[in-house]
Amino acid sequence: MTSSTKNKLQELYQSDDYLWLKQTIELLKIKDFESLDIENLIEELESLGRSEFNKIRSLSRQIIIHLLLLEYWQPEYDINYRHWQAEIIAFRDDLSHELTTTLKNKLIPELDSIYHVAVSLVSKKTGLSQNIFPPVCPYPVEQLLEDNWYPQNN
Predict the structure, then answer these.
(1) 3-class SS at 7?
(2) Which residue among 38, 64, 93, 117 is buried most deeply as judged by most CB within 10 Å?
(3) pTM, two decimal places
(4) Are 144 and 64 in contact (CB under 8 A)?
């Protein structure tokens, strides 16, 4: 393939990114590296990495939200604790399947930030004051993943 193929591929990226992806995969399979649209390929790979980490952040936030509901939302505990635990099981399963060592290492320093968003959401949902929650995330990553671990209801 030629540089005109590369130019067509770059144009295709702007109009039909799915077809661009299919054609890029075909070029990779036949090892036609010269015809690849490298700039957009790099952009897509970087975007894929961000998406994977955003998924990890979202799943972690959902686990934390439900752990906080279990631990702090007294009036609803008896009615909802089974539902919250079931949600935690599902989110833990998803997180454990997505979490790699590299993503885990990237998640650890972000945990307090994720926790603060979870606290804001729980506070808004329940009407509980944000002041009743610990100032930093009380749940290490290992606890977020630990099957059958749930906080004590306060």
Answers:
(1) helix
(2) 64
(3) 0.85
(4) yes
Rounded to an integer, what distance in angstroms lies between the CA atom of residue 46 and that of residue 41?
9
Say whether both 77 and 109 belong to one domain.
yes
**What's the structural domain count of the chain?**
2
- Burial class of residue 91, CB neighbours in 10 A (0-12, 13-18, 19+): buried
Rounded-to-integer distance, Cα 72 and Cα 152, Å: 9
- Determine the length of the chain: 154
Q: Examine residue 46 and state whether it is found in any structural domain, yes or no.
A: no
Hey, what are 51's tokens?
């998406």
Could you list the residue range(s) of the whole structural domain that residue 19 is in?
1-36
Which residues of 52-109 form beta strands (DSSP E)? Answer: none
Q: Angle, nearest 10°, between helix axes 17-29 and 3-15? A: 150
Tell me which DSSP letter residue 71 carries: H
